[in-house]
């Protein structure tokens, strides 16, 4: 009987620490924010009373929230589409027999492990409005300086460059691993039939990588909807305002601002849960598109 209990119960004991830690530090805080979102909750006064759906009603009419959502989706489109295309191209190059493959693969992952503090210093020098390196280079070409933080769409581009610099190599390595699983015989047969390298890429590599591409699209969607780090370090004021007019404030920056700067924990929790539901909806849309693509 003891041996039977050991055989059937030991796997649950081995995985129990993870679920205990997740329950205490993950699931409980997540569910507790639901309770907080239905209350007027401040840093000093704590729970100041149940207000029902008032925070959500306020959110629906809050122009600041809709601007933050617009910024988040806009930066997502500007950053993710070029990022995944560039990652595919880099992976295809590294999948060929070139000198120094290991070195190039190591270089691709370096941005991902780079310190956030170093990232902030480097890109603040690059995108400085007055003495930034990029504006100086534009000046040599006779082009007027760009107000990277003051202009909405240029600030999106600057943040997108930061995101792409950090995550392109990461996605390229994922694509590279999937490419190396494609049988070489398929490429050899295509080459014998006269297919060029570009034709092989679009008619063999892309179809064979379809599940991996869908995976990276879903993960990138979830990650970018929670975008915080890059715009936060781009915001030199430190107030999480996202520029003087909130031109690059994301939803997560708004959550941080409302909860930890203004002390409106109830309203901040409501924004966080609306963002969670939006991520779930986008995830379901991705799953539906995935099923249709696989069916095709």
Automatic annotation (TrEMBL):
**Has the keyword Ribonucleoprotein been applied to this entry?**
no
Classification via SUPFAM superfamilies = MetI-like
Q: Which Pfam families match?
A: BPD_transp_1
Q: How does it sit in the membrane?
A: Multi-pass membrane protein
Record's keyword annotation contains Ribosomal protein: no
User: What InterPro entries does this protein's entry cite?
Assistant: ABC_transporter_permease, MetI-like, MetI-like_sf
User: What does the UniProt keyword field contain?
Assistant: Cell membrane, Membrane, Transmembrane, Transmembrane helix, Transport
Membrane-spanning ranges:
12-35, 68-91, 103-123, 153-178, 208-228, 270-289
Signal peptide, first to last residue? none
Q: Specify the domain of life of the species encoding this protein.
A: Bacteria
Outline the extent of the ABC transmembrane type-1 domain.
Answer: 69-286
Query: Where does this polypeptide localize?
Result: Cell membrane
Q: Which PANTHER family match?
A: ABC TRANSPORTER PERMEASE PROTEIN (PTHR30193), INNER MEMBRANE ABC TRANSPORTER PERMEASE PROTEIN YCJO (PTHR30193:SF37)
Q: Which family is this protein grouped under?
A: Belongs to the binding-protein-dependent transport system permease family.
Its name, as the record gives it, is: Carbohydrate ABC transporter permease
Source species taxonomy: Bacteria, Bacillati, Actinomycetota, Actinomycetes, Streptosporangiales
């Amino acid at each position: 009987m003891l041996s039977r209990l050991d055989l059937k119960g030991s796997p649950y004991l081995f995985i129990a620490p993870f679920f205990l830690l997740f329950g205490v530090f993950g699931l409980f805080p997540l569910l507790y924010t639901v309770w907080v979102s239905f209350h007027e909750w401040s840093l000093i006064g704590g729970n100041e009373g149940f207000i029902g759906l008032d925070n959500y009603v306020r959110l629906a009419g809050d122009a600041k929230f809709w601007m933050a959502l617009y910024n988040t989706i806009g930066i997502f489109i500007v950053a993710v589409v070029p990022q995944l295309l560039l990652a595919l191209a880099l992976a295809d190059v590294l999948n060929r027999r070139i000198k120094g493959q290991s070195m190039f693969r190591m270089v691709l992952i370096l941005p991902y492990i780079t310190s956030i503090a170093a990232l902030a210093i480097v890109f603040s020098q690059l995108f400085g409005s007055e003495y930034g390196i990029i504006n100086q280079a534009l000046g040599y070409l006779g082009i007027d300086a760009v107000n990277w933080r003051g202009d909405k769409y240029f600030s999106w581009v600057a943040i997108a460059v930061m995101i792409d610099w950090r995550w392109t190599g990461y996605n390229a390595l994922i694509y590279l691993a999937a490419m190396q699983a494609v049988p070489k015989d398929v490429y050899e047969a295509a080459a014998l039939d006269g297919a060029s390298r570009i034709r092989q890429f679009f008619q063999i590599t892309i179809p064979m990588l379809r599940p991996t591409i869908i995976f990276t699209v879903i993960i990138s969607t979830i990650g970018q909807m929670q975008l915080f780090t890059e715009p936060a370090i781009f915001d030199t004021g430190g107030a999480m305002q996202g520029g003087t007019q909130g031109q690059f404030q994301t939803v997560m920056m708004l959550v941080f601002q409302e909860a930890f700067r203004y002390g409106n924990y109830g309203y901040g929790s409501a924004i966080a849960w609306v963002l969670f539901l939006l991520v779930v909806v986008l995830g379901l849309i991705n799953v539906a598109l995935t099923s249709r693509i696989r069916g095709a």
